[in-house]
Amino acid sequence: MAFEVSLPARGTTVRATPGTAAPEGAALLIPVASGEDGIEVPVTALAPKGLLEALVAVGAKGTAGEVTRLLIDGILVITFGLGDASEIDDEAVRRGAGSAARTLNDVDRAAVSTEFGVGPIVEGLLLGGYVYTGLKSRAEVFDQDNADDQTPQTTEVTVVGADEAEYNSAVVLAESVNLARDLVNTPANYLYPERYASVMGEVAQAAGLDIEVLDETQLEQQGFGGILAVGRGSSRPPRLVHLTWAPSGAGKTVALVGKGITFDTGGISLKPGAGMEDMISDMGGSAAQLAAIAAAARLELPVRIDAWLPLAENMPSGTATRPGDVITHYGGITSEVINTDAEGRLVLADAIARACEDNPAYLIETATLTGAQLVALGNRTAGVMGSEELRDLIAESGREVGEQAWAMPLLEEQEDELKSPIADIRNTHNARTGGMLFAGLYLSRFVPEDTEWAHIDVAGPAWNGGSPYGYTPKRATGAPVRTIVEAVTRLVDKQ
Fold first, then answer.
1. Is 30 part of any domain?
2. Is 141 contained in some domain?
3. Which of the following is catalytic: 345, 354, 475, 482?
4. Known catalytic membership, residue 419
5. Is 345 a catalytic residue?
6. The domain boundary residue, chosen from 161, 184, 215
7. In this predicted model, what pLDDT tens digit does every residue of 287-321 receive, in sequence order?
8. Alpha helix segments (H runs only) across 163-258
9. Whole-model pTM?
10. Identified catalytic residue from 271, 380, 399, 490
């Protein structure tokens, strides 16, 4: 892994290297597709003679996600399905390569060619091969009763014919996503605000970023009332981390904001106990933004980026914020706390207000913010709100890289629901309808009218509670790192 950070456990993935030919004895990874007349073997440099006949003999179809193993002339051949031959795109290749990577635990060496693109192949392999075994005392043991419990990856994959620049860019992107996965997968007793800020310092040093960390005293002095209100119930005080990538000659500036709730009990408005262990994922937005700015620096994108990442642990205690309390956000807006489990918007509001003080041309914020996002769009599609042009660009960027996203409105009829009798606004509307949109509307109050901004709700996409699929593992997915990097790249191209 590119980032040497002091986490208690790291995920593993296949080790990819560029090359001009397949090493002797290496397993061959071959893409196949489903055509009108059955399975098809596209023209690839590594496909051995007799492959098509062998695939037909075993009943392979070439459908998406299908992985078939064959022994041809003493060489292990592993084919991965791309689906309909007439609809092959980068995402189909990425998913196919990811599905193949998940089956390589018992393979020492493999090779793949790049006729379908360097980026999709490399990203698919490195993302799909990711395995997080955590803190198991016997991590090498494969649980035969649970096929999803995989051993650490050790396979070396030679990527034949890869353009060096494309290869390196794909590696950077995949390593950044896997960094975000590692952070989100880390148990909260090992990753709390102070420790998380320290890890961010390690990433900043590795990527060439400037970093500033505000502790609880500085937060109090500077008026970050939202971050302090959320962190008040925990014995582990909050932090606000400011990361900067400032290359010489950079044009317009981009601000990134990401929610960093290292564990979310709901506070006084306590969540149900079932499934609460997954609330280690509530810092997924901050992990994605950390990974995105690190990727931008390693890719040397010619744009200044400032990331503002608020970190807190939302716990119930005698010092915790209560429903009915009124807090003062950075910049002076007051908010009535109706539900302490709507805490993400409270810390984000402070960070957004501070980020906007520097007059960025664009502000992109992401968070595992609302259960309403899952109700509206499911587990795999992010909801994007904000300024129409930037909102649409980000949603399109997500779909382009395979992180599904959909543009959503901010509703005029919710304006009255935002009002409080004792503060400027209130943090929830206590209704079953439009919860994701209400959260976006709340955040909009902290963005000046002349700032283009977007809010990405990844409550579902950032965490996979089911089985692996394509290049997506169980647990932390790393979404929406690739969306943000793609969007920032497009914004650079607009300059």
1. yes
2. yes
3. 345
4. no
5. yes
6. 161
7. 999 999 999 999 999 999 999 999 999 999 999 99
8. 164-185, 193-207, 216-222, 225-231
9. 0.96
10. 271
